UniProtKB/TrEMBL annotation:
This is Acyl dehydratase. GO terms for molecular function: (3R)-hydroxyacyl-[acyl-carrier-protein] dehydratase activity. The lineage of its organism: Bacteria, Pseudomonadati, Pseudomonadota, Alphaproteobacteria, Hyphomicrobiales. Gene3D superfamilies: Hotdog Thioesterase. Keywords: Lyase. InterPro entries: HotDog_dom_sf, MaoC-like_dom, UPF0336/Enoyl-CoA_hydratase. CDD domains: R_hydratase (cd03449). Residues 24-110 form the MaoC-like domain. GO terms for biological process: fatty acid biosynthetic process. It comes from Phreatobacter cathodiphilus.
Length: 150
């Protein structure tokens, strides 16, 4: 997923409805790499013969690989560096296959100014079908905190 450039937004920069959209083509290398990093060597992800006998008929990406694309958006674009994950819900709707172009959309759904928290609506889609949806709560640093960290 070529992240355009890293963008760091302060809490004061956020508004309900602000969103970011990133697209990523899932490759065999992505799936093998995620299996190596996570230790999840389930053959549904790695073995064509095994996967061909499942209800999916072919290898699929790890669900948490797809979820990690949301993390990439949160950590690099909306809100970006300095944001701290507090929680994430994930509802898996459909499989992601090698070659799928995943559209990752993250949108500010709610702001809690007293605690510098943002609720983010998160959705991943492939071929116009939602494959994953959920929401994340993050703590977002203030402009003063970002400047002090720079």
């Amino acid at each position: 997923m070529p992240i355009r450039s890293i963008r760091s937004l302060a809490y004061e920069d956020l508004t309900v409805g602000l969103s970011e959209l990133v697209m990523k083509t899932v490759t065999d290398q992505d799936i093998v790499g995620f299996a190596d990093i996570s230790g999840d060597q389930n053959p549904i992800h790695l073995c064509d013969v095994y996967a061909s006998k499942t209800r999916f008929g072919q290898r699929i990406a790890h669900g948490l690989y797809t979820a990690s694309l949301i993390s990439a958006v949160i950590g690099t674009r909306l809100p970006g560096p300095g944001a701290v994950y507090l929680s994430q819900t994930l509802n898996f709707r459909a499989p992601v296959k090698i070659g799928d172009v995943v559209r990752v959309h993250v949108e500010v759904a709610e702001l809690m100014p007293e605690r510098q928290r943002a609720r983010l609506a998160c959705e991943c889609a492939a071929d116009a079908a939602v494959v994953l949806e959920g929401e994340a709560w993050v703590r977002v640093p203030s402009r003063t905190e970002l400047e002090a960290a720079a």
